[in-house]
Amino acid sequence: MKTITVFKGDGIGPEITDAVLQILDAAKAPLSYEIFNVGAAEYERHGALIPDDAFASFEKTRLLLKSPITTPIGKGFRSLNVTLRNKYDLYANIRPAKSNTAVKTPFPNVDIVTFRENTEDLYIGVEYKMNEDTVHAIKLITRKASERIIKAAFDYAVAHGRKKVTCVHKANILKMSDGLFLDIFHTIAKDYPQIESDDKIVDNTCMQMVMRPEQFDIIVTPNLYGDILSDLTSGLIGGLGLLPSMNVGDDYAMFEAVHGSAPDIAGKHIANPTALLWSACMLLEYIGETAIAAKIRKAVDEVLAEKQHLTPDLGGSATTEEYRDAVIAKL
Q: How far is Cα of residue 131 from the mean position of the Cα atoms in its chain?
């Protein structure tokens, strides 16, 4: 039995977390949970975004399943996602987007894994107000961070039988910062002659991705572009409700849905828990429980294919609980 930390989060977070934990239990996943409320709602109740005992739990278990947390726009506290990634050096944000035949989109052949550098770039959040009309934001790119995310992408390609790694950048304009990232990519690519490598400017990548997404296999990119492009890949496969992710470092790993807390539908019991559930499957695979993860994935695929218990974001009318129960019935 493996103990993991669970953060319930804000908005739809508690609803989808409960559904996912019930599915994990039905699948007999060998997990026990230390569960905490975190985020804006927790701050309003007790004056702390993340309680000290929640941090202590993650530092003990080193495995975190985290549901969405609300981040204020343009004011207020800094993103807790960014805080956690930096505090625990979760430098690799891995977001797999794969078409599912049961979910109808114009793009049936998407199978893209985005490797997003997770600790620097504009996400360091360093801004200076130069005067009342001018703000200066710092973009940080370092050799250390670039090398380890690029190596992680190539190592993943080798381990998972992938064929190509594409570096996405804006080195035509940002010649020093993105230029450094691109130079490191080409140097490391030489150590993996069995893996095809190429690079694309980020704006061209966006166009190519919606015209011929099947040309992409693994993408590796600095923080900001990875955030944007991975959301784009979710649109190709049917929406953010289907995009899981993992954030890994040398010592800790955090698994989370890519989507936000969706306060507009919180409490309506119509949220799609699939992205968080598939993130939990990534956690299971990370700890070696691949058979149970495969069983859950198969159950989800069957429910999606039958189309009788789809949540509204997928064109259905089922509640979160009806979808949960359908997956459990398949298990």
A: 36
Pairing, β 63-66 against β 253-257: parallel
Q: ∠ CA(250), CA(116), CA(237), 5° rounding?
A: 125
pLDDT, tens digit (0-9, with 9 covering 90-100), for 98-113: 998 888 889 999 999 9
User: How far is Cα of residue 100 from the mean position of the Cα atoms in its chain?
Assistant: 18
Residues of the chain with CATH 3.40.718.10: 1-90+244-331, 106-237
Give the DSSP H or E segment for 312: none
In angstroms, the CA 110 to CA 139 distance is 31
Q: Are 255 and 244 in contact (CB under 8 A)?
A: yes
In the numeric block, which tokens belong to residue 22? Answer: 């019930």
CA–CA separation, 233 vs 5, rounded Å? 28
Superfamily of chain region 1-90+244-331: Isopropylmalate Dehydrogenase (3.40.718.10)
| pTM confidence score | 0.90
How many Cα neighbours within 13 Å face the side chain of 239? 13
Residue 225 · residue 168 · CB < 8 Å: yes
Q: Are strands 92-98 and 111-117 parallel, antiparallel or unpaired?
A: antiparallel
What's 79's DSSP letter? Answer: P
Average pLDDT (8-31) is: 95
* Residue 32: Cβ-neighbour burial (10 angstroms; 0-12, 13-18, 19+): exposed
The CATH architecture of the domain made up of 106-237 is: 3-Layer(aba) Sandwich (3.40)
